[in-house]
C-alpha cells in the first residue's frame, strides 16, 4: 500500500513539475518595430531587462570583421545622458549585475536588478539604443580592451580551435571569419564606419526587448512605451549571404598553435542551421558520443584504451549552418590517425546499428533535464525568450522544444548519422604545435 501511495505521489509531483515549467509570456510591438516580450514571475523581487539585437559576427563588410563584438563593448561607454564609464558603475550601485555577449548571429545585453529598479533598467537600455556616444576616445579605449580579450581567450593553448574550424569548413559564408574579427580590421576602421554600422544594425526594428521577473504587466507596458517609443525605426536589414557548396570529398588541413605542445585532431562537418529538426538530432548524437565520462567515446578512448587525454564531439549551433566536430588529444605514442579511426568506428556503428534502448532513454533524460534547468531562473528564461523569438522565429519553443527531443527516435539518430557524418563530408584538421621556423 505504501509503495502504491508513493508511486501515486511521485506521478502527481511529476505532473506538477511539468506544468510548473510552462513559461507564460505576453508579446507586443511598438510603432518603431521594437518587439517586446514580458514574463511575470513574482516569486522573488528580481527583474531582468535585456535586449537582443539581430547582429553578430557574420554581419558587415568582410574587410571590417569583428564589429558586432566590438560594439558589445563600445555600447557600455556611455550616452548623451550617461557620462563615460558611468554605465558600469550605475548598475552595481543600484544592486544590479550586468553582462553582454556576442555570437556569429546576435548580440545580447542584460541587467538584473531588484524589482524596484525596473525603470532604471529600461532607461539604461533605451539610452544604449537611442543615443550612445560613439567617439574616437571610446573607440580607442575599447580597441585596447578587445586586444586584451583576444590575448586572454584566444592566445592560449587551443584558443584557436574555433578559428581553425571556421576558416576550413566555410569558404564563402562569413562564418569563415572569427567572431572577434581580425584586429587589423579594427585598427583600420574609421569613426564614420563605426557610426554607420550602428545606424545599420541597432535600430529597434532589429531587436527584441525582454522584461522578466517581479513586475506588473500594465505598468511595465507603459514604462516600455515611455522609454522606447522615442527611438526612431532603423533601416531594414537585408542579408544575402553566399551559399556554401556541399562537401563531397574529404578535405585535409593543418593549423598551428604556438601555445601548445600536444597536437590535436579535428574532424568537422558542415551541418544544417540550429532551427532544423536534424540539428536537434545532431545535438543528441554529440551527447551520445561524448556527453560526460559515461559516454561512448570517453569510455573507449580515455578510460579503457587509454589512447586519448581528451575526446569530444560537439554540435556548434549557428543560424545558417552549424558545425558538428570531433576533437581528440592523444595520450603517449597514440597517433592522430589512430584517434580519428577509433572515433570513426563509433560513428559507423551508429550508421549501421540502432543505439540501445537504454542509451536512447538516457539521452532523453539528459535533454529533459537540460530543458528544465534552462527555464529554472529568470535570466535563463529571458535569454531563451529572446533567442527563440529572434533566431528561431517561435517564442513558444520555450515551452515545446522538449517535445522535439522527445520525438526523436533511435531510427532518427541512425538516419541523421548516415546523412551527415561520413568521412567524405568533412574537413580533417591536424592542429599542431607551431615551431619557431613556421
UniProtKB/TrEMBL annotation:
Repeat as UniProt keyword: no
Molecular function via GO: metal ion binding; metallopeptidase activity
InterPro entries: Metalloenz_LuxS/M16, Pept_M16_N, Peptidase_M16, Peptidase_M16_C
Pfam family, one: Peptidase_M16_C
One GO BP annotation of this record: proteolysis
Keywords tagged on the record: Hydrolase, Metalloprotease, Protease, Signal, Zinc
Range of residues in the leader sequence: 1-20
Limits of the Peptidase M16 N-terminal domain: 36-176
Residue span, Peptidase M16 C-terminal domain: 189-366
Annotated family: Belongs to the peptidase M16 family.
Protein name: Predicted Zn-dependent peptidase
Amino acid at each position: 500500500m505504501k509503495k502504491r501511495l508513493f508511486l501515486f505521489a511521485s506521478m502527481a509531483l511529476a505532473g506538477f513539475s511539468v506544468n510548473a515549467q510552462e513559461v507564460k509570456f505576453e508579446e507586443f510591438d511598438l510603432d518603431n518595430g521594437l518587439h517586446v516580450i514580458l514574463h511575470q514571475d513574482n516569486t522573488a523581487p528580481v527583474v531582468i531587462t535585456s535586449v537582443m539585437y539581430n547582429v553578430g559576427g557574420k554581419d558587415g563588410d568582410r574587410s571590417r570583421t569583428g564589429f558586432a563584438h566590438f560594439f558589445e563593448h563600445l555600447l557600455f561607454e556611455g550616452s548623451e545622458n550617461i557620462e563615460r564609464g558611468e554605465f558600469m558603475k550605475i548598475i552595481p550601485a543600484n544592486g544590479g549585475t550586468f553582462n553582454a555577449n556576442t555570437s556569429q548571429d546576435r548580440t545580447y545585453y542584460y541587467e538584473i536588478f531588484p524589482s524596484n529598479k525596473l525603470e532604471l533598467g529600461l532607461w539604461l537600455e533605451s539610452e544604449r539604443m537611442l543615443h550612445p556616444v560613439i567617439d574616437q576616445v571610446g573607440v580607442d579605449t575599447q580597441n585596447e580592451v578587445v586586444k586584451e580579450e583576444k590575448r586572454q581567450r584566444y592566445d592560449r593553448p587551443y584558443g584557436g580551435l574555433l578559428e581553425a574550424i571556421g576558416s576550413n569548413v566555410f569558404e564563402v559564408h562569413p562564418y569563415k571569419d572569427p567572431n572577434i574579427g581580425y584586429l587589423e580590421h579594427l585598427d583600420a576602421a574609421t569613426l564614420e564606419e563605426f557610426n554607420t554600422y550602428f545606424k545599420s544594425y541597432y535600430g529597434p526594428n532589429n531587436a527584441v526587448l525582454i522584461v522578466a521577473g517581479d513586475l506588473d504587466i500594465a505598468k511595465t507596458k507603459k514604462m516600455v512605451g515611455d522609454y522606447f517609443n522615442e527611438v526612431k525605426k532603423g533601416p531594414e536589414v537585408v542579408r544575402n549571404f553566399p551559399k556554401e557548396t556541399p562537401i563531397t570529398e574529404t578535405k585535409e588541413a593543418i593549423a598551428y598553435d604556438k601555445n601548445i605542445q600536444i597536437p590535436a585532431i579535428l574532424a568537422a562537418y558542415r551541418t544544417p542551421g540550429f532551427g532544423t529538426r536534424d540539428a536537434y538530432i545532431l545535438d543528441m548524437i554529440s551527447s551520445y558520443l561524448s556527453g560526460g565520462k559515461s559516454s561512448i567515446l570517453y569510455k573507449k578512448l580515455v578510460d579503457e584504451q587509454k589512447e586519448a587525454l581528451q575526446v569530444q564531439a560537439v554540435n556548434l549551433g549557428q543560424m545558417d549552418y552549424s558545425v558538428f566536430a570531433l576533437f581528440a588529444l592523444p595520450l603517449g605514442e597514440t597517433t592522430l590517425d589512430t584517434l580519428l579511426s577509433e572515433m570513426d568506428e563509433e560513428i559507423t556503428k551508429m550508421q549501421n546499428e540502432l543505439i540501445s534502448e537504454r542509451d536512447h532513454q538516457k539521452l532523453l533524460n539528459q535533454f529533459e533535464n537540460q530543458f528544465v534547468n534552462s527555464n529554472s531562473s529568470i535570466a535563463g528564461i529571458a535569454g531563451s525568450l529572446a533567442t527563440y523569438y529572434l533566431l528561431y522565429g517561435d517564442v513558444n519553443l520555450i515551452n515545446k522544444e522538449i517535445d522535439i527531443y522527445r520525438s526523436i527516435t533511435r531510427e532518427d539518430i541512425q538516419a541523421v548519422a548516415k546523412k551527415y557524418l561520413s568521412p567524405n563530408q568533412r574537413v580533417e584538421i591536424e592542429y599542431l604545435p607551431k615551431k619557431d621556423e613556421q
